[in-house]
Design brief:
Layout (H helix, E strand, L loop, with lengths): L1 H11 L4 E11 L4 E2 L5 E3 L2 E9 L2 E11 L5 E7 L2
Antiparallel strand pairs: 1-4, 2-3, 4-5, 5-6
């Protein structure tokens, strides 16, 4: 969750993040796991709406498997 703090602070001009609400936008149709149960293929997208000092900022968050059980996380502001 720390990856959303910086963008929220920049978007709201506030240092205190009060809350974050998340919702799933999509789960990749090509989602694939390995024998250990780790996801190795298929992106997942979410919308995160952060509130700070009474202001809100929305972000599109995409998780892309790195092929070894971890994920790359991309965050971009929604307009």
């Amino acid at each position: 969750m720390l990856f959303i703090v910086g963008p929220t602070q920049a978007a709201t001009n506030c240092k205190q993040v009060d809350s974050i609400q998340t919702s799933i936008l999509s789960v990749g149709k090509d989602l694939k796991g390995n024998a250990a149960g780790k996801i190795i293929k298929g992106d997942t997208s979410e919308r995160w709406v952060a509130t700070a000092c009474g202001k809100t900022a929305s972000f599109h968050v995409t998780y892309t498997p790195d092929g070894q059980g971890g994920s790359f996380i991309a965050v971009r502001p929604e307009k």
